[in-house]
Amino acid sequence: MIEFITNPANQLVALFLILGLGIFLGRIELKGVSLGTSGVLFVAIIFGHLGVTLPEFITQVGVVLFVYAVGLMAGPRFFKTFRRDGLSFAALALVTLGVAFLAAVLVEWIFRFGGGLSAGLFTGALTTTPGLAAAMEAVDDPEGSWAAQVSVGYGLAYPLGVAGVVLFIQLFPRIMRLDLRQMAREESQLAKSQSPQGHWYQLSNPQLVGRTIGQLMDQHLVEVTISRVERKNGEVFVARPDLVFETGDIVRVIAKPRHQGAVETVLGPMILEKSEPDRSGQGPVQSRDVFITEAVLDGKSLRDLQLPEHQGVVVARLWREEIEFVPQAGTRLAIGDLVRVVGTREDCEKFIELAGNAERKLQQTNFLPLCLGLVVGVLIGRQQITLPGTDFGFSLGLAGGPLFVALIAGHYGRIGRMSIRMPMAAKIFIRELGLMFFLAGAGVVAGREFLSILMDQGLSLIAAGAIVTVLPMV
């Protein structure tokens, strides 16, 4: 069996055998702690010790796919979150990494492991796979001894990093007397309270009587959407731009809580006792949730589409990548968007035919923008960046370049007229497959010297890994 899997002709069999056994190992739980996908790394170390080899290409493809998928998943929220909490997160990251780096330098000064092993300890203690990829690329090493030492250090420190973080997260709230479940409930309620909400408002501003909804919305007073207008006689109308306000109108407005005061100032008081609109589909005006799956709407703004005039419906809400926001005239629709439209039954059906609403298409992945993004990311990662006024240069590497491009692509959601949307299941699959490929390649490299380094360094490596793990968390 060993002769079979160590035969270079059977590398493909060895690869998938490593992946399968690694997944099985990762599912084994010990007091609530499991290795997860990282089980692949430890199986690969054993196979590498037995003499199994894998093409270096596997490791490179793995890290590129992994970080690109991570970037696509983070992109839609990354810049918004960074604008809001960027300084806090940046400070936290710099302090954590800085302390970990100083701890790694300290253990290197004490134990004299060598740069490769210490770099592996640093990345393993922080359980950072992109860091491992960057460390392996840091030195031009045709013989592979540097990459092997980095991988060994990572493999030894990683279990301590996982276990240490799990134990710390479980113990720290108890020490600080924090109820994490209650805090999570409060955060969830706060997030829900800040999402767009629909309310009825009594029109009491005489200056709006006789003016159209379009004239009001052209003022860009606040970010709101008007979806319906109910007359004094109970008749309900779709809030088309040419609809004229009348005395006694009750207006349905979707806005974020922070804008509700401004809406009351412009329109009139909020009516809390009035019931929600009937969504049973029986009334003259209906609301329908529709998926955008047809390319004819992809990239088009609501202003350009003029849906109220051409389709008779108003887009009241929009969800994209699980984020809800109030659509504006300049909002561009994208494949995969879920929109709530308000209109008559006939108009809603007409819009559904235009939009597609085919959930089957939502599961399809367009691989062309994926490949283009990976090409650009790899090329950017290879570019040498020289710091001004110095001779010191560096590159983003296979981990940084694709991640940078994916964050931007995930944020904008398109490349020119081409949508880069990808189903969440596809992103998770590519992320996990890339991670397993990378860990398999790195583990096999580490396995060549794992046992000899462990026997030579022994307990000092374990102690060093514990130091680099614990100090940043403290």
* Overall mean confidence score, pLDDT: 84
Biggest sheet strand line-up? 3-2-4-1-5
Shape type: elongated
Main beta sheet, described?
A: 5 strands, antiparallel
Query: What is the count of DSSP helices, taking H or I runs of 4+ residues?
Result: 19
User: How much beta, percentage-wise?
Assistant: 5-15%
C-alpha termini separation: 47 Å
Helix fraction by DSSP (H/I, runs of at least 4) = 55-70%
Radius of gyration: 28 Å
DSSP summary, beta strand count:
13
Uncertain ranges: none
Structural class designation:
alpha+beta
What is the fold's blueprint, element by element?
Layout: H1 2-6, H2 11-26, H3 39-50, H4 56-111, H5 115-125, H6 129-137, H7 145-176, H8 180-194, E1 197-202, H9 213-217, E2 224-230, E3 236-238, E4 250-255, H10 260-266, E5 270-271, E6 286-291, H11 302-305, H12 307-310, E7 314-320, E8 323-325, E9 338-343, H13 345-355, H14 359-362, H15 367-382, E10 385-386, E11 393-394, H16 397-412, E12 414-415, E13 418-419, H17 424-447, H18 450-457, H19 459-473
Antiparallel strand pairs: 1-4, 1-5, 2-3, 2-4, 6-9, 7-8, 7-9, 10-11, 12-13
Concise synopsis of the structure shown:
The chain is α+β, with helices and mostly antiparallel strands. Helices cover 57% and strands 11% of the residues. The protein has a five-stranded antiparallel β-sheet with strand order 3-2-4-1-5. Strands 6-9-7-8 form a four-stranded antiparallel β-sheet. The protein has a two-stranded antiparallel ribbon with strand order 10-11.
